[in-house]
Every structure is written in C-alpha cells, then in structure tokens.
Design brief:
This protein has 444 residues and is α+β, with helices and mostly antiparallel strands. The chain has helices at 2-34, 37-43, 241-258, 269-293, 303-336, 343-369, 391-410, 416-443, and strands at residues 59-74, 79-91, 102-105, 118-120, 123-128, 136-141, 145-157, 169-178, 186-190, 197-198, 208-222, 225-238. Among the domains are: 46-238, Neurotransmitter-gated ion-channel ligand-binding domain (Acetylcholine Binding Protein, Chain: A); 242-331 and 427-443, Methane Monooxygenase Hydroxylase, Chain G, domain 1 (Up-down Bundle), CATH 1.20.58. It has 8 helices and 12 strands. The strands form 2 sheets. Strands 1, 2, 3, 5, 6, 7, 9 and 10 form an 8-stranded mixed sheet that branches. A 4-stranded antiparallel sheet has the order 4-8-12-11, with no helix packed on it. The longest helix has 34 residues, at 303-336. The N and C termini lie far apart (104 Å). Residues 247-357 form the Neurotransmitter-gated ion-channel transmembrane domain. Heteropentamer, formed by a combination of alpha (GABRA1-6), beta (GABRB1-3), gamma (GABRG1-3), delta (GABRD), epsilon (GABRE), rho (GABRR1-3), pi (GABRP) and theta (GABRQ) chains, each subunit exhibiting distinct physiological and pharmacological properties.
Length: 444
C-alpha cells in the first residue's frame, strides 16, 4: 500500500517537469524557424498578390519539363493528350535567408506564395494530379530562388494535314504563356535550351515515332499587350507498316485476284462473274472500313483513299472487260448462226441474196440511164453528193455514214484478243501507277 502511494506521488512530480521541457523545446523550435528571414516574410509583411520586383524590372521565369507520356493522338478530334512535369524557377528577394541550404516545403504553402500565372495555350482539357495529395513541389533556396513543379495531364489541339495519311508527318506544339502578366512584368526562358525537355526520346507511341523536337521562345501579341510564350515543337512520323499490312497488301491482292478471270474462258460465265463481283464487293468493304476509322476527317482526300480508289478502278475495270469481251463474243456467234443453220434457212438466205442482186442490177441500169454520173448507191454506203437530195437529207446521210465508221472502228473483230491483251496491259499499267503513287507520296 505504501509503495502505491509513493509511485503516484513520484508521477505527479515528474509530469510538470516534462511539460515545462516540451514547452521550452517548442519555443526553441519557433525561434529557430523565425530566425530565417524568408520565413518571417511569409508570416509578416509578405504580400502574395504582388510579384517580385513589383514596379521594377520583370521577373525572369526559367522553365523545364519532363514528358512522361503521350497517351493518345486523335486524328478525328485533331488533338493529343500528354502528361508532363512542369518546373518553374524564379527569384523572389523577399524570401532570402541565411545559410546554404534549401528547404522543401509543404505543397499547401503555395497558397501563401506568389506564383506565375502560366497556362497551356490551345488546351482543351487539363487537370492537376492529386493522388494521394496534390502533385506539387515547392523548394526554397537561400538566395530567394523558388522551384515550383507540377504534374499535369492536358489535351492540346494539334492541327493536322492528313492529305498524305498514312505516310504523313504531323507537327504539334506545346505552348506555355503568361495569362495576365505581359513582358513588362515577366519574361519566360528555357532553363537549358533544348536540354530543358526530357522524355521525348523515350516515348513509345502506337502509331507514331518522335522524329525530332526543339524549343522556341516567342511572344504573343494580344489586344491587351505582348505576352511571353515558350514553345515545344515536335514532329511525329506515322508508322506506315501497320497500314501496309492492314490495307495496302489486301487491296493489292484483290486487284491481282481480279486478273485471274483473264485466264478463264469466255464461256465460263458464272466463274468470271463470281470473281468480278466478289472482288468489287471486297474492295468496297475495305474502302468503307478505311473511312470509318477517320469518320470525322472525310473532308480530306487522303493518300490511302487515292490508293483504294485506284485498286477499285482496276477491279471494276476487270469486270467491265469481261462484259465487253462476252458481248463481242455473243455478237460474233450471232453473226455466224445462219451459216450453221438448217438447209431451209440457207435456202431463204440464198433467195434474199438473189433478190438483193436483182435490186442492185436494177439500180445499176437505172444509173446508166440518167446523166448524173456522180451518184453511187450501194447497200452499205450511200454517196451523199447526190444533187437531187435535199440539204437535211444530206446531213442525215453524212451523220449516218460517220456513225457507221465509228461503230466499225470500235467493233472487236476477235473477242479472244481482249483477254489476251488484258493479261499484259492490266498488270503493266498497275505497276506504272504504283511507281508514280509511292514516289509522289514518299518523296514529294
């Protein structure tokens, strides 16, 4: 019992000593903190609404950034989404303190400091990462230099020229500009020129590769003044191999498949028709699929559309070639049918020939009786220089003769030669068109 009372009494004596020592320690800590001139200014006399050197020379903001990723590049919306770590440095003489150390402060202290009003030009959507806390960094150096870093994901507009798609190279920009302070208040510079940007060479994109990038310093002239602007410009080269395997090779094979019909006889109507219709429908499906992938950019005549149009023309031409050859063959067969008919048909034909000869002889005798020696009448061609004919009859006669000559000029005497020449001309012409196509879109 006595031991318990003694222990309680000792504890009561010890607690005031501990409290006094803790209070003394906190006062010491407060003294060491308030001994820093910069820290005193944060709580006494520091106005975050006034920029450093207010009323004097402009504040120089040096920037650098890391490109963490470019997650998507949209041709239909003409923009790209990037995650960047933006770092800004400036000097505030009000935050100078003694010593050679730097202090990393709580990110919530940013609300007590003056920071630049930097924004991303042509940004559609942006947000600051806040997991698990706001991804911001504030570091204070003894000479008053402030390092302010942010991690941002932004969607920025990038105007693209898709006329050479998918063999195109797109140039996009990431522009940083001051919103309210003009060049009389702040100036923007890159911290180390092109070396101020990191991460571009490590990016791995699905359809593109970064060909080159560089930094620029510019100014934006607005109605309210001239504002400093920093530009990161980078060129993206599209990987064409994917499109070659997905579109170019299948369309070329379909064109070659349409040429198979040239080696099939004209009598095989189902086989040749099936090949022609199938290749035409397959090419139509490829063209629709290519347009659906870029449904909002149909105003552009793209390189892939030109190639698909060429292939569709060759496939359709092969189908039309068979129609012409088959029609010519049927016309020739129809002309040869009377010679292979029965005997009564031959007899009728011979009688018709005799009647024609009689009529011709009568006309000849009639011509001999009249004095106009320039008139010549035949069953195939009528001489339109007959003086007894009226003017409109002469015109009709001349037009009829011209039409007969044109039709005879385009009449195919041997339909078998159509396939024979098509076997050579279609592949040759297709190769020539391909040479011009690839040379134009790759080198011009």
């Amino acid at each position: 019992m006595l031991c318990r009372y003694f222990s309680f009494f000792s504890l009561c004596l010890f607690l005031p000593i501990q409290r006094s020592s803790l209070g003394h320690g906190s006062r010491l800590h407060g003294r060491s903190t308030t001994s820093l001139t910069g820290f005193e200014n944060l709580t006494m006399g520091y106005n975050k609404y006034l920029r450093p050197y207010f009323g004097g020379e402009p504040v120089q903001i040096a920037m650098s950034m890391d490109i963490a990723s470019i997650s998507s590049i949209s041709e239909s919306d003409m923009d790209y989404t990037a995650t960047i770590s933006l770092r800004q440095r400036w000097t505030d003489p009000r935050l100078v303190f003694h010593g050679n150390k730097s202090f990393t402060l709580d990110a919530r202290l940013v609300d007590l400091l003056w920071v630049p009003d930097t924004y991303i030009v042509e940004s559609k959507r942006s947000f600051l990462h806040d997991v698990t806390v706001g991804n911001r960094l504030v570091r204070l150096f003894s000479n008053g230099t402030v390092l302010y870093a942010l991690r941002i994901t932004t969607t920025v507009a990038c105007y693209m020229d898709l006329s050479k798609y998918p063999m195109d190279t797109q140039t996009c920009q990431l522009q940083l500009e001051s919103w309210g302070y003009d060049e009389n208040d702040v100036t923007f510079t890159w911290l180390r020129g092109n070396d101020s940007v990191h991460g571009m060479e490590k990016l791995r994109l699905s359809q593109y590769r970064v060909q080159r990038y560089y930094t620029l310093v510019s100014k934006s002239q607005q109605e309210t003044g001239s504002y400093p602007r920093l530009i990161l410009q980078f060129e993206l080269r599209r990987n064409v191999l994917y499109f070659i395997l997905e579109t170019y090779v299948p369309s070329t094979l379909l064109v070659m498949l349409s040429w198979v019909s040239f080696w099939i006889t004209l009598d095989s109507v189902p086989a040749r028709t099936c090949i022609g219709v199938t290749t035409v429908l397959s090419m139509t499906t490829l063209m629709i699929g290519s347009q659906n992938s870029l449904s909002k950019t149909n105003c552009f005549i793209k390189a892939i559309d030109v190639y698909l149009g060429i292939c569709f023309s060759f496939v359709f031409g092969a189908l039309v070639e068979y129609a012409v050859a088959h029609y010519s063959s049927s016309q020739k067969c129809a002309a040869e049918v009377p010679e292979e008919g029965p005997a009564n048909e031959l007899t009728e034909e011979m009688e018709e020939v005799k009647m024609t000869n009689i009529l011709n002889n009568s006309i000849t005798s009639y011509k001999q009786k009249i004095s106009f020696t320039s008139i010549e009448i035949s069953s195939d061609n009528v001489n339109c220089s007959d003086l007894t004919m009226k003017s409109h009859e002469k015109i009709k006669c001349v037009l009829r003769n011209k039409m007969h000559r044109i039709i005879s000029y385009f009449t195919i005497q041997n339909p078998g030669n159509v396939d024979h020449y098509s076997k050579l001309l279609f592949p040759l012409f297709f190769m020539v068109v391909n040479v011009f196509y690839w040379a134009f879109y790759l080198y011009f």
